Structure formats: structure tokens, C-alpha cells
Amino acid sequence: MENIAENIIAPEIINEAMDYDEYRQMIDKLVGQDKTTGDNHSEEMVHYTKMNVQRMKRLDKRVELSDSLVEALNDLDEDWIWLVLTEAWCGDAAQNIPPIVKIADKSEHIDLRFILRDKHLDIMDEYLTNGGRSIPKLICLDAETFEEIGTWGPRPEAAQEKAMEWKNDDHISKEEWAKKLHKWYAKDRTNELQSEFKEMISEWK
């Protein structure tokens, strides 16, 4: 089977990718200039980005990992790179990246890196969700060979099912869809994400 990651994710892309601190600093700098990532710096997109900064700050402080997930991380003895495609204006990225950071920080075997989707559409287009460029998208790579081990994203499966259900409902506006989705995240408190990552880490090993 052809390994997509080996063919399109060059070592320099990993080397130039941002860590979480660099990602957050880049967003803060852009917001300070009334901008966001990508080419669309409309008032609406900058507003989304500012809300996402607050979401990430809140989650950075609040996320606590389950004992079973920590146990799975402690059993990990392979070195991985987790490469995440993201953008500052993306609400799903703001909800899911902070818990992913907590997970990666718990293991010395996981190197978490971030690249912007719109600067790497060649990579994004190999990892579409239902034909769309949905983010965040995490690609787990072997740290030595860059072989693709697995992927995750753009949101926990339970949230994805709800999101698609609401999206296909003509009575739900785009604004109401977003509100319902963020309400789902608030109620779930990263439990679904943590459960999925616990299972994936065991499978990927």
C-alpha cells in the first residue's frame, strides 16, 4: 500500500512546523493586527479567531486527562510525530487542540507540531473528510521513517455525527449550527476526545 505521508510530508515541513507555544504566539500577534491566518481577514473571521483565543486559554487551564488515558500514554514506547493541520479561525481546532496538547505533553515519545492548512493544501487534500478540507486533522507519523501510523479529526466521532445531522437540517442556520456544536463541546468536557485517543494510542502501537 502506498504511504501518502512519506511521499508528501518532507522532513523540512516537520522541521519548520510550529510547536504549541509558537502557534499561540503567532495567533496572538495576528489578532493584535486585526488579522487571522489565511487570506480572509474580514471582521467576522477575526472575531472567530478572538473567540478561539479565549476558548484555548480556558481549555489550557481546565483540561485534565483521565487515568486510563494517562496509563495508555505511560505504556507508549515508540517515538511519534503528531502533525496537525489547523487554522486560527477554526472553532473545532480551538476546542480540540488544547486537549491534544495535554495528551502529547504527557509523553516524551510524542512530538506535536502544527502547520497551517491553507499553506499546505497538497497535504490537506490527501486527508479530506467527506470530500472537504475539514480541520483540525492530526496525522500520526513514525518519528524515524515518517511512515503514516494513523489519523484523527476533525472532531470526535460523536460530535461529527451531530454536526452532520445539524448541517443536513434545513431549519438550522449556520450560526445556530455553530452554537449547537460549541454547546456540545462544553457539555462533553473533552471526554469523547480523550476516550478516542486512548483507543487510538493502543491501536497505533
Structural overview:
By secondary structure, this protein is α+β, with helices and mostly antiparallel strands. It has a single domain, classed as Glutaredoxin. It is built from 10 helices and 4 strands; from the N terminus they run αααααβαβαββααα. The protein has helices spanning 4-8, 11-16, 20-32, 43-62, 67-74, 91-105, 121-124, 157-167, 174-188, 191-204; strands spanning 80-86, 110-116, 137-142, 148-152. A 4-stranded mixed beta sheet has the order 2-1-3-4. β3 (137-142) and β4 (148-152) form a beta hairpin. α3 packs antiparallel against α4 and α8 (157-167) runs antiparallel to α9. It is globular and about 45 Å long. The two termini are 19 Å apart. The mean pLDDT is 96.
Radius of gyration: 17 Å
- The residue ranges in which pLDDT falls below 50 over 5 or more consecutive positions are none
Q: Helical segment tally?
A: 10
Number of strands: 4
CATH superfamily: Glutaredoxin
Q: State the CATH topology.
A: Glutaredoxin
CATH class: Alpha Beta
For the largest beta sheet, what order do the strands appear in spatially?
A: 2-1-3-4
The appropriate CATH architecture is 3-Layer(aba) Sandwich
Structural class by secondary-structure content: alpha+beta
Q: What is the succession of H and E elements?
A: HHHHHEHEHEEHHH
How much of the polypeptide forms β-strand, as a percent range?
5-15%
Mean pLDDT: 96
Distance between the termini: 19 Å
Helical content class: 40-55%
Based on Cα principal axes, name the global outline.
globular
**Biggest pleated-sheet summary:** 4 strands, mixed
Compute the number of structural domains. 1
